[in-house]
Amino acid sequence: MGILDKRVFIITGAGGGLGAAHARVFAAEGACVLVNDINREAAETVVDQIISAGGQAAVNTSNITDYADSGLAVRQALDTWGALHGVLNNAGINRDRMFASMTEADWDAIMAVHLKGHFCISSHAVHYWRDQAKAGQAVDARILNTTSGAGLQGSIGQSNYAAAKAGIAALTLNQAAELQRYGITANAVAPAARTGMTTAVESMATRMAKPEGDRFDYWAPENVSSLLAWLASSAASGITGRVFEAEGGRISIADGWRSTAGVDKGARWAPAEVGEAIQSLLATEVAAQKVYGT
Predict the structure, then answer these.
(1) Which tens digits make up the pLDDT trace of 17-43?
(2) 165 noted as active-site residue
(3) 263 in a structural domain
(4) pTM given for the model
(5) Of 70, 128, 155, 165, which one is the catalytic site residue?
């Protein structure tokens, strides 16, 4: 049927936007999809679309920020289809505000949905896969995380969101390094697509508007879904610990922080000497990408 035939996935925040696109594309490729969203009506709509197209899907409304409740999503997938092959952590929110005006509530909400939300269901899934591996069963499992260009290079007015998305990128690297022994891969994708979050600003809505006629819809969320569907497939079993970027028809790898050759005195630097060393480093550095909005 497709590259995900008979594989079972949980997709969070799948009641709309990117998550709904991911769910439809995964199902079209043969996956059984547990459509997770706190908005039951939205999730039911996506499930109805998938079933009407001949796919398999079920609604789940587990709270991804609640550890115990998120475990019920894993249990539902296993009870419904008898297996689980991957978790696509997509759910997210925005609480945009300049740092000087940001409230504790703005910060905590983003950390809960993004960082903790990426932890909870994945943790339960990993326990299931680790038990399988220890029992001698073959495991070919996926953790697919959603980071952002904001997390990779910063974004004015989004310090909470950028910090959370940077944390997700780092989490992905750790998951990949620790979990490969169990047959689990972990990769992240930074998407650029037309969603409710990205088009909330009028200028972005105009820029990302769907084109008329048969022209390529550059900002369609399904463009991102294709990459994730392939990463979810058995063909991607050797790919782990990567952060990809997807926009339109373009796929790239985000090249992360790297140590430079540095300047080594071979002894302690006197405080007054450090400035000269820093100037030497700056003269040969490769400049980072600019922060969004600067």
Answers:
(1) 999 999 999 999 999 999 999 999 999
(2) yes
(3) no
(4) 0.92
(5) 165
